[in-house]
Design goal:
The complex is a heterotrimer of chains A (479), B (465) and C (100). Helices cover 38% and strands 19% of the residues of chain A. Chain A is an alpha+beta fold and 479 residues long. Chain A has 3 domains: 3-286, no CATH class; 299-408; 417-476, Orthogonal Bundle (Arc Repressor Mutant, subunit A). A 9-stranded mixed β-sheet of chain A has the order 2-6-7-10-1-11-12-13-14. Chain A has a 3-stranded antiparallel β-sheet with strand order 5-4-15, with no helix packed on it. The termini of chain A are far apart. Chain B is globular and about 70 Å long. The mean pLDDT of chain B is 96. By secondary structure, chain C is mainly alpha-helical. Chain C has a two-stranded antiparallel ribbon with strand order 1-2. The chains are: A alpha+beta (479), B alpha/beta (465), C mainly alpha (100). Chains in contact: A-B, A-C, B-C. At the B-C interface, helix 9, helix 10, helix 11 and helix 12 of B face helix 1, helix 2, helix 3 and strand 2 of C. Strand 9 of chain A pairs antiparallel with strand 2 (84-88) of chain C, so a sheet runs across the interface.
Chain lengths: 479, 465, 100
């Protein structure tokens, strides 16, 4: 029996605002516990929520970036349940009338190539506090700094068909949301969280079968591993004749397994109702139009533009548009570094400069200084190989010029014809047999002879100048 | 120049006298606290200049203040000192008033007699064997007993007007959104409003003006025109149209209430008002609508009392869930428990549409009834405030519905968000009777004007039969 | 609408409220009575075209300006250790979330 996997993802991302969703506390991560708290985010008697304008703006931006229809009127709703890190005993979210619906994200699936995932809905909500189970023995400890931080929840339709595809979607989603500066989307830091829904069905079937929910993954690769494990579990169980039960499973990164939650699975009755403390969120056509037109260029558009403007192939363009920061760098480099064609600029950025990045996102060398290295190579003063050694040095030595660094490292090439002629003469004199054989027709000995000149120059001779001088010398002197 | 220290000493003596009679209007007050506030106030610019200079105001214990605890009449918040102060209290201080103390109320404002106060009820100063009404019974009693001339209460389903009527004082519920709810412990968020008591219409109206206005910390407060101070008493109500809704005057209405309201209507006519019969056809659905919407919102608003961050915690629990259940089981009284469970039920899966969603739609019909009548040229409605005068302690405790029905004339204004006022219009066998004026949205000015004129034209302590 | 003992237990669980035997029996009766009373709303048939909420939320500027707490978390907490609010272990509530 051949099985098809059906996956939908719910992703929560923290928005890049200064303050929390419903109060004016700082939303900053990493401050001492319970210091960014107030009556509202602690759920004290008498406190009231007031929505953050910037959170709304960022959510709308995310919605447009994902091709959603943004609704001019949406409603906040209470999701009621008890948990120690949920101060009010309910979370303010959106339920029946969310901010946005009906979007799509195009990305490249490892199995199916170019494809689109439908975004069912995107809505605003507040985060809960953070619970710690190991800080105080026998107790759970809670920090409410995170309570009230703005989140958007992004839900896909069940359009994904494999764990690897799910991972590719997440990578594309992160890229888009980072491009429009809505969230850091960092799973390891908790600014992006994933809940996955997975079911299987016979290949070719169209009905949706019972799905399980998988949680507790800390990285994109964790998501892929977790879904791989859960798919295997469901297939094995089904082939044994067992029914798949709707339940929640937790991923254990250490073992790579998924296991059911320890507590008895209860289906939650969240008793959603419209939040009476917040009137409907009404966004005017004019305001929405402004936000839509202010949307930064999306990754796909930038990729295509680079393909045309710089003559790059698809995958090449993808490399230099991985983040908006890298793409900005590439454009600046292509314009100012004097590397020549778009392809040549690409070569430099992709092969020499990206490697300098510590975080894979920013290039720590200003375009102007990188340009100095390019000019040295073009002038023949530095070999391409030597440039790779100069560049990191240039990053470290922020006040030196490229020339100074190359000199200090002894990497400057010699193109002085006098010096080169001397080395060529000495080499020819030292290897008469090879010279004779070359003149007799063994033209491939040129490589050997060039190598000998280079050795004699301790690698400093400009290979092009050496080639030229050697060719000339081998022609003129005739035995 | 107001002598704020003298005002404090004077208030202290009056409160002590009131409490010495067993009124139990207050859950927390002290002469020391009053004098300390007076000292602090004497040094501040508001002392002489504020709109409420020299006033000493009692505050219902569901409103957070910085001087006293805020228990909401509940064991689950026994001793709770709020780390922030309600906007309304801040504003009355900024206007130069002192906080007399915190008054007794039904637990979390859920009740109509103050009998559900976990720390003991207040007594009706006019007849101590009877309830002062609720849930703001303590504030009403404090004013009626002369301990203070003004007090803050709160309304969700008539909890200022009903006790005002029972105690023979004035009570005003403003338009929803007129007064900030920041610092008012939430019961039914789409209904709650802080209201004011006064020994007369002017006092209650002055207090309301001082605390009203937009608050950025409460997104449901009105944006628009602030409420002005009450003007002088109008000599005539010529040109004023007063609607009398037939649904509020059923067959078999209590004879004393009937006589009092008839006398008041005569006085209004004498003042030149036009009296017009009108209909608010969905009135009979008001109490059932209210008893779906309010408990539903309450069940959610009271979920925060879980022993995690503040308040009562049952210390013996082995795990969090056991802690929740024991804390809330012990901390909440019978009426609160009943409403939380009722509210949870009407919001739960399978019942939400038939109950909560339906109730919110019927509520719109009730609101539309009022809007239609006011759009047709009526300036205010006049009705009885309560179906009977104050009942005796214990009379309505056995059957929750019997208690709920005492709110029949008042809860409509909470559902419709319109302002309403109760003023004493006579006595029946010594017991006060209240008459109610209901205005259009943001129409406090109109109902205050009419109430002042009516108050001026009749003897509220006269027997009506 | 009859509220059964099972209903009472389920609702009490959802509301995290301990209810003893005697109270549960009384609640069955009282809740049934109240729900029967409020069920008369079912008679209302003219509620199809009612207006929705016509207000618009006021939004807050994204500037740090918290309402200061005059008493700290440590002051108000029933239990507090190492800068954190503490509660007994999760038990049944445990979602199994790994937390660093």
């Amino acid at each position: 029996m051949s099985w098809e996997t059906v996956v939908g993802l719910e992703v929560h991302v923290q928005l890049l605002t200064r303050t929390k969703m419903f109060c004016a506390c700082s939303a900053r991560f990493g401050d001492p516990p319970n210091t960014n708290v107030c009556p509202v985010c602690l759920g004290l008697p008498g406190a009231l929520p007031v929505p953050n304008e910037q959170a709304v703006r960022l959510a709308v931006r995310a919605a447009y970036a994902l091709g959603c229809a943004v609704h001019g009127r949406s409603i906040f709703a209470r999701k009621n349940y008890f948990y120690p890190d949920l101060p009010k005993g309910y979370q303010i979210s959106q339920f029946e009338e969310p901010l946005a619906t009906g979007g799509a994200l195009a990305f490249v699936s490892p199995e199916r190539g170019e494809m689109t995932v439908r975004i069912k809905r995107l809505h605003l909500e507040e985060d809960a506090g953070k619970s710690f189970h190991d800080r105080v023995p026998g107790m759970t400890a809670v920090d409410f700094n995170r309570s009230g931080v703005p989140l958007v929840e992004i839900v896909t339709d069940p359009d994904l068909r494999s764990p690897a595809e799910a991972r590719a979607y997440l990578t594309a989603l992160k890229q888009v949301l980072r491009y429009v500066e809505v969230s850091d989307c960092n799973m390891e830091e908790g600014s992006l969280r994933v809940d996955a829904n997975l079911s299987i069905r016979p290949a070719g079937a169209s009905e949706l079968r019972t799905r399980t929910e998988v949680k507790n993954m800390n990285s994109f690769s964790g998501v892929e591993r977790a879904l791989t494990a859960e798919r295997a579990r469901q297939i094995a169980a089904t082939e044994r004749g067992e029914r798949i039960e709707q339940r929640t499973l937790l991923f254990d990164a250490a073992s790579g397994e998924v296991r059911p939650m320890r507590s008895k699975e209860e289906s939650h009755d969240y008793r959603y109702f419209p939040e009476p403390d917040i009137p409907p969120l009404v966004l005017s056509e004019a305001w929405l139009a402004t936000e839509r037109s202010a949307l930064p260029e999306l990754p796909a558009a930038r990729r295509e533009r680079f393909e045309h403007s710089f003559g790059l192939a698809g995958p090449e363009s993808a490399v230099v548009t991985a983040t908006a920061a890298i793409a900005d760098y590439f454009e600046g480099f292509a314009a100012k570094a004097g590397a020549g064609s778009g392809k040549e600029a690409w070569n430099w950025v992709a092969n020499d400069l990206l490697g300098l990045s510590g975080d894979g996102e920013t290039i720590p060398l200003a375009v102007e200084r990188a340009g100095e290295v390019v000019q040295l190579v073009k002038a023949g003063k530095l070999s391409r190989q030597a440039a790779k050694r100069v560049l990191p040095e240039l990053v470290a030595a922020s006040h030196d010029t490229a020339l100074e660094v190359a000199e200090r490292l002894g990497l400057l090439q010699v193109s002085d014809t006098g010096a080169i002629d001397t080395w060529v003469r000495e080499t020819l004199a030292a290897h008469p047999a090879e010279v004779a054989r070359y003149r007799a027709g063994e033209v491939k000995l040129m490589g050997f002879l060039v190598g000998q000149v280079m050795k004699r120059s301790q690698g400093k001779a400009d290979p092009r100048a050496v080639n030229a001088a050697l060719s000339a010398a081998l022609v003129t002197t005739s035995g | 120049m107001t002598d704020v220290r003298a005002a404090a000493r004077d208030a202290s003596a009056r409160i002590a006298a009131c409490e010495a009679k067993g009124t139990h209007a207050f859950l927390a007050w002290s002469e020391a606290a009053l004098l300390a506030q007076a000292e602090a106030m004497a040094a501040s610019p508001a002392a002489g200049a504020g709109a409420l200079s020299g006033e000493v105001v009692a505050v219902k214990d569901v409103i957070a203040d910085a001087t006293f605890p805020t228990t909401c009449g509940s064991r689950i918040l026994e001793g709770w000192r709020s780390p922030f102060e309600a906007t309304a209290v801040r504003r009355l201080r900024e206007a130069g008033a002192l906080v007399a103390g915190k008054t007794a109320c039904d637990e979390f404002a859920m009740g109509s007699s103050t009998e559900w106060c976990a720390f003991g009820p207040a007594r009706n100063p006019v007849d101590p064997s009877r309830v002062p009404g609720g849930s703001s019974g303590g504030s009403a009693a404090a004013v009626a007993a002369g301990a203070v001339t003004m007090a803050l209460g709160s309304e969700t389903g008539g909890s200022v007007r009903q006790p005002a009527a029972f105690c023979g004082v004035v009570g005003i519920k403003p338009t929803y959104g007129r007064v900030s709810r920041y610092g008012l412990v939430a019961f039914g968020s789409s209904l709650d409003q802080i209201g004011t008591f006064g020994r007369d219409v002017t006092s209650a109206a002055r207090l309301l003006a001082a605390i009203s206005g937009r608050d950025d910390r409460d997104g449901t407060t009105l944006d628009r025109i602030p409420l002005g101070e009450p003007g002088p008493v109008a000599a005539s109500l010529a040109g004023t149209v007063i609607g009398v809704p037939r649904e509020y005057f059923p067959e078999g209405l209590h004879a004393g209430v009937h006589a009092a309201t008839r006398r008041a209507l005569e006085r209004l006519k004498d003042l030149g008002a036009e009296i017009r019969g009108v209909s608010l056809p969905h009135t009979k659905y008001a109490v059932p609508t209210y008893y779906i919407v309010a408990p539903a919102e309450a069940s959610s608003n009271l979920a925060r009392y879980d022993g995690v961050r503040y308040g009562l915690r049952d210390g013996g629990a082995s795990d969090v869930r056991a802690m929740y259940r024991a804390t809330r089981g012990r901390g909440f009284g019978a009426e609160v428990r009943r409403r939380i469970l009722l509210g949870t039920y009407v919001l739960s899966a399978g019942y939400y549409d038939a109950y909560y969603r339906k109730a919110q739609r019927v509520r719109e019909l009730i609101r539309a009834d009022f809007a239609r009548v006011f759009a047709a040229g009526v300036h205010a409605l006049f009705t009885p405030t309560t179906p009977t005068p104050a009942f005796k302690f214990g009379e309505n405790l056995a059957d929750p519905i019997a208690m709920y029905l005492s709110d029949v004339y008042v809860c409509t204004a909470n559902l419709a968000w319109v302002p309403a006022l109760s003023l004493p219009i006579g006595r029946d066998q010594g017991l006060p009777i209240g008459g109610q004026l209901i205005g259009a949205m943001e129409g406090e000015g109109t109902i205050v004007r009419i109430a002042q004129a009516l108050e001026h034209s009749l003897d509220a302590t006269a027997e009506v039969r | 609408m009859s509220v059964t003992r099972t209903d009472v237990e389920k609702i009490a669980a959802l509301a995290e409220l301990a209810v003893d035997e005697a109270t549960a029996a009384e609640l069955e009766r009282q809740l049934t009575r109240i729900l029967d009373y409020v069920a008369q709303l079912g008679e209302v048939k003219d509620d199809t075209g009612v207006a929705g909420d016509e207000r618009a939320a006021r939004l807050r500027r994204d500037e740090i300006a918290p309402d200061p707490l005059h008493r700290t978390p440590r002051d108000i907490a029933p239990a507090f250790q190492g800068g954190l609010f503490t509660v007994p272990r999760l038990g049944e509530l445990d979602r199994g979330d790994d937390v660093p």
